[in-house]
Amino acid sequence: MNTKLGKYTSFNTLLHHMDARVKLITMIIFMVSVFLDYGTTYMNLVVDLFLFLILVILCIIGKVSVGTIFRALKAIWLMIFIILIINVFFPATKTGDIAFSINDFPVYWSSIMNVIFIFARLVLVLMMTNIFTCVTKPLELTNALEFLLFPLSLIRIPIHKFAMALSLALRFVPTLQEEADRIIKAQASRGVDYKQGKIKDKVKSIVSLIIPLFVSAFTSSGQLADAMEARGYDPNAKRTKYKTTHWSIVDTISLFLAASFLTGAILLAIFPYDLFSALQITLPKLK
Amino acid sequence: MRSKKKELELTKRDENIPLDSAIYLSNLSFGYETGKLNVKNVSVDIKKGERVSIIGHNGSGKSTLSKLIDGILVQNEGDIYIFGVKMTDENALILRKDIGLVFQNPDSQFIGSTVRDDIAFGLENNQVPYKDMDAIIEDCARKVDMEEYLKSEPSNLSGGQKQRVAIAGAIARRPKILILDEAGAMLDPKGKKEIRAIIKERKQEDPDLTILTITHEIDDAYDSDRVLVLNHGEIILDDRPEVVFENDDLLRSIHLDIPFSHKLAKVLRKNGVDVPEVKNDEELLEVLCPSN
Amino acid sequence: MPIQLNQVYYTYNLNRPDSKRALEDISLTFDDHCFTALIGKTGSGKSTLIQHLNALLLPDSGRVQINEHVLDFPVQVKKNGKVNYRKMKKLHKKKLPQVKEIRKTVGIVFQFPEYQIFEETVLKDVSFGPKNFGCTEEEAIEKAKKALTMVHLDESFYERSPFELSGGEKRRVAIAGILAMEPDILVLDEPTVGLDVRGQREFFHLIQDLYDQGKSIILATHQMDVVLRTCSRVIVLDQGKVVLDSTPLKLFQDKEFLSSSSIEPPIVFSFAMSLIERGMPIRLENIRSTSTLAEEIARVKGGKQ
């Protein structure tokens, strides 16, 4: 399957039906557990691997394409490569075991592990956000955000207005894309070349896209405001909420599992447990 | 939240306005810029259950008028009465509950991320309890023949379908007045026809519904009980469609279309063929070539 | 023959699960100085076809020839009888040297063309096109002035901001922007949507003028009265295929085809048909508008000629 990264696709799966708030909380918990320190780099990688397996299972349940995530990584290969170079040539520690040498220049295990560790975190974060946005409608996402940020409204920050603005912005992304596409084609017909030309021409061609796009966005936003008003929207009034999900037993179980996972992760971070020394497996020393 | 008592106070009828009036405009004037009026001294009484068309060329003030009636714009002078209640800053939101307004552009009035969410938007504003929403949404989607698309996103819908959703969104709030502000202008002939059919059906099912169609198409105007002609912000004609369209010369002079039979009869006379005044195509056909 | 399409296929999102076939086996020739209508429901492939006429889209397979420029890909991208999509994608991305020349020959006016306006004055905006095609500042201004005269916008508009103009005027500025490039062939995609009766009338006069001045016109429209009045040829698209290529006169008489494709003949035409059914000997081929119908009736009835 070749779907777009992070784009909501309407499927009939367990994950799609879950309450967006549970999904958001679970994602935050996973996020936190990725960035906790479990004592050694090896242990961190073990936890990451465990999390990775969970996420792969979630991908399968939610019919999210794992391939898309890795294809998206293509864009950051260069970054990974640069990190690798920096880590190899400017190692953080010059102690620990040496993996191999290039022309007498020692490459430490710690450098390699560091890069793998950074890469793993990146993949995990990308996976989590991708799964989340693939199985959660933008509107539910904003509703969930609104719910979680509820405490802020107690100090008179108008959360519901921000949430409305956010959901409208998400709604109009595809519309603006279509609009941009149309303008690009119209200008291309007038001889604009977006691919080649001198810097000066390039600037001009971008201007010829940006200005009409702004004009059209402003017109639409005015019309949208009228349409919202016409349907009785009042930013200061109370509104009921149309939810497309219902709290189910799955949500309760998931929330419980997520909470236990977080507890486990925190306990492991506070009381580090070195699995490898317990199993008497010797790994290259990093420090 | 306002108390019921306060709300009653805000929606008190004015005794001088006729009981059967749905929209009553008295000496209404509005200008976007100072010194230039887009709506000039408009006075009109639209009755409950009436189907009225407003025609006029682009820039004649048609759309401005619809926004004034819905309280989206606020007039410089004059008064608006909705079911006899004078519109003020305080009660505009309450009065608006009785009005459904559908605009021209299919894309920029699609508020929700799916058809379902979009219809729900107005219900949320009206504080309809959640448990009642699904039934209303499904019912309204059925009325505009979009029940199979409830989960669809706007980018997968045609212009005509989006406009139908917009109508569903408007009628979901159960308005007593429905205003269509050139709702078909950006659609192809099929889309326009569908919109026309939906409105006809609404009217049949709910004869008390007051419908105001803003248009520049003759077909729309002929569907109504009454036609208002707007030119430079002023109402220059106000009558039944047959009577309004008798004013060929006037309509042509303000760049409005006239019915085909009138147009042809006119050119025929110019060509030396003597034809009497006709009402419609059938009559002209009968005059030119009587059937046996 | 300035434009020739030969077995053109096009699919959006090719090779993806959400792919959508838009054009199927299109073979068409547009002659010099033609006035052709392109009709079909929304989504029938009209817009896709139009974009092939100036290389905004390139065919998946088949061949498009515009004057001497040929755009085709079929041989190179086939491997063991199968289409090699990767290679095709690369080819599509490759800069085609003839594209600029093609876009100068074929000008496209899109739906709501006023969205392409971006300069601060009318004159600047209209001269943008010619400048892109290598004209000097003076030449471009000269061409812009000529184009603005064609769309009946006089000198008083030159230094005005296009954003302050009325809807109809904006649209005329946008069209002048295309005309200033002096294309031989003008393609218009639903050019009158959103205009009022007067704007539409003025617009079709303008197109007729351009045709009389020697331009070829290809017009995608839903307005059958315009097709009858102005076009000499009509092509009907349905689901990406050409289902009819004929004259308006023949199309509007073909009752079977009309009912199957939900096309409604213009009132003038159906009125004339009713007259003929009732026995009035008017000649259908003479009727293109209300005034020509009146002339025909006058001829039969013996009014002044």
What would you note in describing this structure?
The complex is a heterotrimer of chains A (287), B (292) and C (305). Chain A has helices at 14-17, 20-35, 41-62, 66-73, 77-89, 109-135, 138-148, 150-154, 159-189, 199-230, 249-270, 275-278; strands at residues 98-102, 105-108. Chain A has 287 residues and is mainly alpha-helical. Chain A starts with 13 loop residues before the first helix and ends in a 9-residue tail after the last helix. The model of chain A has no long low-confidence stretch (mean pLDDT 86). With 292 residues, chain B is α/β, with parallel strands linked by helices. Chain B has a domain at 259-292. In chain B, 37% of the residues lie in helices and 20% in strands. Chain B contains twelve helices and ten strands. Chain B has a six-stranded mixed sheet with strand order 6-7-8-3-9-10, sandwiched between helices. A four-stranded antiparallel sheet of chain B has the order 2-1-4-5, with helices on one face. In chain B, helix 7 links the parallel strand 7 (177-181) and strand 8. Chain B is globular, with a radius of gyration of 21 Å. Chain C is an alpha/beta fold. The two termini of chain C are 39 Å apart. In chain C, the strands form three sheets. In chain C, strands 8-9-10-3-11-12 form a six-stranded mixed sheet, with helices on both faces. A four-stranded antiparallel sheet of chain C has the order 2-1-4-5, covered by helices on one side. Chain C has a single domain, classed as 3-Layer(aba) Sandwich (Rossmann fold). In chain C, 40% of the residues lie in helices and 22% in strands. Chain C is globular and about 60 Å long. Chain C has helices at 46-52, 74-77, 85-93, 99-105, 122-126, 128-132, 137-150, 167-179, 197-212, 224-230, 248-253, 255-261, 267-277, 290-301; strands spanning 3-12, 20-30, 35-39, 61-66, 69-72, 78-79, 82-83, 106-109, 185-189, 216-220, 233-238, 241-246. The model of chain C has no long low-confidence stretch (mean pLDDT 88). At the A-B interface, helix 9 and helix 10 of A face strand 6, helix 4 and helix 6 of B.
